[in-house]
Write a structure and sequence with these properties.
405 residues
Length: 405
């Protein structure tokens, strides 16, 4: 009795497991089916065929010959094979086929701006904006479309107020990385300069980057950009060109000898004067790394003050939020100054060793290690005293030799 109960429980569990497995497979197949209505119809036909098979089997046990029951079961099995065979074969053959032909799943939808760009090239700017907005209705957070819209508004319609609204809407959308927002605001600053010639508006656009991402490389780059904003005179000269006053025309212009006065010669700035200007600039814009490097080179190459040059380079090396490539460049510049100006091979090697220890297992470390091994070749060659030549016959090498008899 207990053995019969155990067999019944085991059979019930097996049946439940089989039904659950069939249900999971059926649900998975239903979700992946392209024509779900057809899938439901096949399930219905399968239930009818299976019911007929069970009825035929029971009827055969009750008196109909077993041969008829077997033939009927084969017919019903053939019907199920015809109904589900292609799906089952495709289930196993599809992954193998996709290895050679690729997946048959449609690609993810993405915005298309080819029509908008064509309208823009034709000069139909409003039509181009309409095409962009149609795509943005389906993909409201697409960066490419929003930047294209702002670009048309700024450069073609010259409506910077509308372009600024588009850029700020992009910047206020959640999910965009900082690099995208910084690029959008930098583009707005470019348009403020090139279209409106508004230096203050460009400065405000760059200051938004600093406010949004303080203590980052984007803020550092924005400060660099602010330090190099052009003046009003520079913008006016770029827009209208530089005015050159010519002397009155004379008949023999270009034929007479002209004595050039000493005061008419354009003189370059003295190193001390140039250094003072760079120091004043860095006082106002201390984050201007380009100006600090120029000042360091001026100290080392023109004023022979290697100590001041090293001080400026150390400030650059310890500056935060700079790209690794830029910091590695400063280490190499410091090594250049030590080996070429100071002729101090050990100090130059020490600078390269600091680079290796700061950025180990990088391409910059490998490059510094290679340069260390050949650094001695970069030492300036000592100047030799000129070699005095003797006096020789003026016709040396020109006289004919007399042959001895």
């Amino acid at each position: 009795m207990e053995e019969t109960t155990a067999h019944a429980i085991r059979g019930t569990l097996i049946l439940i497991s089989a039904l659950l497995l069939c249900g999971v497979v059926a649900w998975w197949s239903f979700r992946r089916s392209v024509d779900q209505a057809r899938w439901v119809m096949r399930i219905g036909l399968s239930v009818v065929i299976l019911g007929a098979m069970v009825y035929t089997t029971k009827a055969g046990m009750g008196g109909i010959t077993e041969i008829f029951s077997l033939l009927a079961g084969c017919v019903f099995a053939l019907m199920l094979a015809i109904l589900w065979g292609p799906s089952i074969i495709g289930l196993f053959a599809k992954p193998l086929g996709e290895m050679f032909t690729g997946s048959d799943e449609p690609p993810d939808p993405e915005p298309l701006y080819s029509v908008a760009m064509a309208r823009r090239q034709q000069g139909l700017f409003q039509a181009a904006i309409h095409e962009v907005q149609m795509q943005l209705q389906q993909f409201p957070q697409d960066v490419t479309g929003q930047m294209l819209l702002a670009e048309i508004q700024a450069e073609n319609l010259r409506d910077l107020a509308l372009a600024e609204i588009t850029i700020l809407r992009l910047c206020n959308q959640p999910g965009h990385p900082p690099a995208t927002i910084a690029l959008a605001l930098a583009s707005l600053a470019d348009w403020q300069l090139s279209v409106a010639h508004d230096i203050e508006a460009a400065r405000q656009a760059m200051e938004q980057i600093i406010e949004r991402f303080p203590d980052t490389e984007f803020a550092m780059q924005a400060r660099q950009r602010i330090a190099h904003l052009p003046t009003a005179e520079m913008l006016d000269e770029k827009q209208h060109g530089k005015t050159v006053t010519l002397t009155p025309w004379v008949k023999d212009m270009g034929l007479r000898k002209v004595a050039i006065a000493a005061e008419d010669v354009v003189k370059s700035k003295e190193p001390n004067e140039a250094a003072a200007e760079w120091v004043a600039h860095l006082t106002e814009h201390p984050a201007d790394t380009d100006a600090r490097e120029r000042l360091a080179r001026l100290y080392a190459e023109e004023l022979d003050r290697l100590d001041l040059a090293v001080e400026q380079m150390e400030a650059l090396i310890h500056c935060e939020h700079l790209p690794v490539k830029q910091v590695a460049h400063y280490y190499h510049v410091l090594a250049d100054m030590q080996v070429r100006v100071g002729r101090n091979l050990e100090a130059a090697k020490a600078a390269l060793q600091r680079l290796i220890e700061r950025f180990p297992n990088t391409a910059h470390a490998v490059q510094a290690e290679t340069r260390k091994s050949t650094l001695a070749n970069e030492l300036p060659r000592p100047e030799h005293d000129p070699i005095k030549l003797g006096t020789y016959d003026n016709r040396m090498g020109l006289k004919q030799k007399t042959r001895s008899p």
